[in-house]
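Here is one chain, start to finish.
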Amino acid sequence: MERTFIFEIGEFLVSSEIVTEYFCCDYESCGGCCCIIGDSGAPVEEDEIAQLRENFDRYAPFMTAKGIAEVKREGFAIRDYDNDLVTPLVEDRECAYCCFDKDNNCYCAIEKGYLQNGSLFKKPISCNLYPIRVSKLSNGKTALNLHRWSICSDAYEKGQKEKIRVYRFLKEPLIRAYGREFYSALEAASKSFFASE
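Its structure:
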């Protein structure tokens, strides 16, 4: 396994794996199981709760009845056992914001509301940025690391086959989260890294 190191871009500490590893979601293989499998909901930012509330009527038509009931019972986000803010779950299983097609493939109702029904909120940034996981450090910096999950093994294989690096696959959400200047700096760091090899 190659040694990893950190790119420092302003207040961000970025794992080299985000530049060196390949990734491309393979929905045909996984059927959206990342929204179903796990012991907690997806991370939610404090300021995203208001956006979830304000756009509820736009994405709720795509949610399941159980999902709507769970949100009404628990709220738009809850605290998990680590005290992290996350999406609520239905029966300790799928995210309350899931929806399913006739073949039981899982989709994000929030994103459907954004794409089809005029919602102004795409989905929690943690979902949009996956497989990057973000953490705030005690020194005020923000760490961006690659999260490896066995259910995404096909996505790593597809990325390798199609030669799509993690940061390239996540260009739009990285710009959404941190701006074009950050992404340009990340591109520059990648070019500099590969040129030095």
